[in-house]
Amino acid sequence: MERRAGIVLVLTVVLLVGVPAPALARTEIQWWHAMTAVLGERVNEIAAKFNASQNEYEVKAIYKGSYPDTLNAAIAAYRAKQPPHIVQVFEVGTQTMLSSGAVYPVFQLMRDNGIAVDWNDLIGPVKSYYSTAGNLYSMAFNSSTPILFYNKDLFKKAGLADTPPATWDEVEAIAKKLTGAGAKCGFSAAWPSWTLVENMYALHDQPFADHANGFDGLATRLQINGAFGVTMMELLQRGAKEGWFTYNGRLNKAEANMGGGECGIFLSSSAYIGNLTRASDGKFTWGTGALPRMSGYPQGNSIIGGATLWVMKGAKPEEYKGVAQFFKYLASTENQAWWAGVTGYLPLTNAAVKAMESSGHFQKNPSQRTAVTQMLGGKTTPNSQGIRLGNFASVRDAIEEQMENIFSGKKAAKQGLDDAVAKSGEILKEFAALYK
Amino acid sequence: MKRFVFRNRWLPYALVAPQVAVTLAFFFWPAFDSLRLSLYRASPFGDRLIWAGFANFERLFRDPAYLRSALTSFVFSFVVTFAGLALALLLASFANAKIRGLAVYRSLLLWPYGIAPAIAGIIWLFIFHPSYGILPWVLSFVTAYQFNWFLKGWVAMTLIVMAAIWKQFGYNLAFYLAGLQAIEASVLEAASVDGAGPIRRFFAVTFPLLSPVTFFLFTLNMTFSFFDTFGLIHSVTQGGPGDATSILVYRAWKDGFEGLQLGFSAAQSVVLMALVILLTAFQFRFAEKRVTY
User: Fold this and answer.
1) Rounded to whole angstroms, how far apart are CA atoms A380 and A375?
2) What is the assigned CATH class of domain A146-302+389-434?
3) Do A393 and B63 touch (CB under 8 A)?
4) Residue in chain B lying closest to A434 (CA)
5) How many Cα atoms sit within 13 Å of B79 on the Cβ side?
6) A360 near A185, Cβ under 8 Å?
């Protein structure tokens, strides 16, 4: 017995001494994110590449669950005074982060650490969404914008030309022909509020909320119950009734229908390209196009979704130095072009767009060019620079609830939108009361 | 019977202390914290805590959607409880009969209870999904009616009611089966001799004798459907379409966790807490009087 204890002791000592101590104590930087599956692997790849590129800092990418999970984890950690250095927050959390008093603005971080980054090279819509008074508050990371997808096989079966519809009139006409030819779903859309309300408002240069969509001050009221919104919702309500528009649920649930080959025309995030490629492989072919427009309204631009990286307060200066170095790496053309190429998210700088153009990437993957062309071809106006609302997640919920009531015919379009405006008004007022 | 008396005055307190500590830390502290938070407007990151008095509660009771949600919760809970118990009792009576393969039959009936609510939700999603579910596909041969619960509130409600009943079914059955087996055969024989048929025997003898079990299951199922069905709803309907399946606990979670409206969500939890206390008190006060042990 004693002998065995001796062996254990020796082994323990050997193990303790034998484990090689890190040659140089690297400063650890925690990066909490919400990227799953293939995207999660890519995130780890970014961290590994950065860690290999220098030996002062070590970025640890840690998966924390869905976007709300990740945000809640960061909130809990911040309250416990142990925040991560970097946290990935989805675009609807932007106002929450800006108001929180818990973040170290990215433009300041870079300035304090003497790293010059040409923020003007960021593509317009991305820069405008995450900047205040021209200063970038969070590091742009994964941004996407909705585009139109169409099932080429279903188009062919219905005897239609191989071109995506460019207007809502065409969407209606084509979707009718598709369902007439036996398609189960002529037209559908994922992320209902984002694709069919928020983006349609921005694309047609219509105001979504007061105070310039929340950019000139805290928004207190949505403006979606005007003529444009009613026309849009009446069209979709009629579509649902006549059968050429199929509603397939909130979030990205509808992607199951597009990926299953049921839908002819479909709106979703440009980041859906990767999954659709996999889902359709060997089953059907598809193409992409710009978001459909309604005639008689001015040109705006589509807005972005996705997430950015926020730097939390409460870390040491040398750690922030590492964060700044890491962001410099993220912003590099090489990383941007690689990231956009492997994920389907937008390349965030004009230089990266050019690099992808000249490397022939877009020629090989024309579907990835659609979103870029759409964004760069649009006009950034106060209505299309983005949407910044407090408690945006709840507001989106209030909108989608009423969209369902409208599509099912339970409420008239105007009534549903009025109700959405009333309910979201309460939510926005609460947020304003908190930060008055 | 020998009565044990503690000599040491402090020992009994020391023995119950861990239990009390756990209860205080995990039940009373969070409950009081919600109570406190419900009176404030609180920012997610904790930098702002503004006294709001009863503003959160006012907002709650002014909101017709909240009252609708309360109604939805009660309808949901009562249907799940009554239909669930009736079905479990019926099948328990069958399982109590002497039939071939009884052991297999009984074990199979218990299975659903071993499944987590969220997983149960996914299973039902696969059966009922309007486009890839098997049931709508089968029904499409019989009727042209579209069972699209993405848009039809009552279909969505029916779906989660059925899923909840199914989920809780094994548990209810196990208790009823045990209750049935505890009934003395002689009592039922005496009733037969007195000329009571099977139905009369059931209502005059079996059902009253099962009343403690029914009472226990009633309380348990009400609480289950009020609170534990969260995972089911979250994975199937997310409270939709519109707010057709948005029960109180789901709303409280959504407003607090996704919407980050902490004070408002805390107010909802307080209302829920009050409801549960009332419900349980009511059950013990009135329902238990009718229970014969």
Assistant:
1) 9
2) alpha beta
3) no
4) B41
5) 15
6) no
